[in-house]
Amino acid sequence: MAPRANWKGFLRLSLVTCPVALYPATSESEKVSFNQLNRATGHRIKYLKVDADTGDEVANEDIVKGYKVDTDTFIEVTKEELENVALESTRTIEIDEFVDKTDIDPRYLIRPYYLRPDGKVGHDAFAVIRETIREMDKVAIGRVVLTNREHIIALEPLDKGLMGTLLRYPYEVRDPKEYFDEIDDVKVTKDMLDLARHIVEQKAGSFEPDKFEDQYETALVELINQKRAGKPITPKERPRGENVVDLMDALRKSVGGAAADTRAQKKPAKKSKKAAAGQKEMLMPIAGKKPAKEAAAKKPAGAARRKSA
After folding, report:
1. Which of 170, 171, 204, 255 is the most buried (most CB within 10 A)?
2. Which residue in 101, 91, 96 sits closest to 152, CA to CA?
3. In sequence order, what DSSP letters do the residues of 180-193 get, joined into one string?
4. 241, 149, 255: which is closest to 194 by C-alpha?
């Protein structure tokens, strides 16, 4: 079953309308996350919402939004006033135009969503809009309100549904001149380009997300499992960056290294034992570990703190 929709409303192309639901296309729930603890007790830290002047705790129902005008001056805006802002995109994604995908600067891309028909009605209208976009080989541009903000959204066919990507507004994209103007104008010789091109050709491949591993996430899982098992933690030596003195020599050595990597990749690789279910599988109880009650009685010194009952 699909997760709960972030937004429900209507998708409209001129007079063709259908009910749709918007779902996040990505998730970070599988990543290792940490809580803040009191070192002395091992208990979690709790944050309270307090009045900045009086220090008194404020109930959620008494908290409102405010726009800062001056140091101590705010314009209060209520939830009802925000809801009354008249934007059609609050409930409808109106397709305004169609553009070529290559026209969209990658800097404007924020995050992807899945769009599908909501309920049993509207599948025919949804299919007409989807196949029209597919047939024209275009990206549909519309507007949608999420978390009280209107966003530009780019829609394109994906399997039987649509993928919607939120886009930034121009004022959110920084001018690259602020960062690139101080870069020196360097004359790159043909020999350097030839060597560098040879490295690229040896490393050329196709984008296959499944072959990438989050090495930092894996290292975190290993660290946590070692601490659960009460094993000593020994820091690994950090790689040292070498100062390149002769760029041509470095390029030549890189060509040799790239060739060795290519030969190694041609050898049949061992299948990964990592479960497809995600990182949660890797944090399951360690094989051979004693039952919880017995382990608690013989808890190793390096084990994680448990919250007292």
Report:
1. 255
2. 96
3. HTTS------HHHH
4. 255
Q: Helices then strands (H, E): number in the chain?
A: 8, 9
Nearest to residue 133, comparing CAs of 103, 166, 156?
156
The Cα-based distances of 24 to 4, 68, 110, 116 in angstroms read 9, 32, 12, 12
- Contact 282/30 with Cβ under 8 angstroms? no
CA angle 229, 231, 235 (to 5 degrees): 130
Distance CA 292, CA 298 (A): 10
Stated pTM of the model: 0.71
Exposure class string for 250-278: b at 16+ Cβ within 10 A, else e: ebeebbeebeeeeeeeeeeeeeeeeeeee
In angstroms, rounded to a whole number, what is the distance separating the alpha carbons of residues 248 and 216? 32
Residue 3 confidence class, pLDDT cut points 50, 70, 90: confident
- Cα 6 to Cα 3, 28, 85, 113, 281: the distances in Å are 9, 16, 20, 9, 27
Type of residue found at 218: T
User: Measuring CA to CA, which residue among 276, 285, 287, 278 is closest to residue 304?
Assistant: 285
CA atoms within a 13 Å half-sphere pointing along the CA-CB vector of 283? 15
| Higher-confidence position of 5 and 258 | 5
